[in-house]
Amino acid sequence: MNRLGIFGGSFDPPHKGHLQVARQAADELDLTAVLWIPARVSPHKTPETTSEASFRCDMIRLMIDRDPRFHLDLREISREGPSFTVDTLEALNLAHPAATLFLIIGEDSFLSLPTWKAPNRIKSLAQLVVYNRVTPISEARVDHGLQEGYWLDAPYIDITSSDIRESIANHERVDHLLTPEVAAYIETHGLYRS
After folding, report:
1. What is the mean pLDDT of residues 2-8?
2. Cα dihedral sign for 77, 17, 20, 126?
């Protein structure tokens, strides 16, 4: 694994936007693999607001199964306490010393990076790969001064897991935002119902 994409998050639920970003990053950057790393507990969320890890992992498996470049990595699920990105990158750096790490994050996360644990260490361990979430990409590149990373040439992603959960709770259709396998899993397990 010489060029390793790191794609973390709550994935509650994983959706087509996540899939689009991972594929775009893998294609554009010629990544050997992309590790999908669900957080046990995001430092910005409470355990009560996140679905059980087993459900989220099952949905990720269902969604990434058809792309051999994609792999589910359970290191944050297995680790106690909040899931800090810097800790994960340190562990991956030890496990794959010959690999170049590419941290795939949304523009919203990139903007909040200074509030993360050890942001400068994060930037020293992995190249940042940012996808557009907030503004037109041409403006975002200039306004946010992304000089230590790479901006994906991908369309604006206007799908959020929180919106999907809210829509399901309100009995609104979300099939167009999810892969059929994930939509069926959510229905079978009655997830996100109010």
Report:
1. 97
2. negative
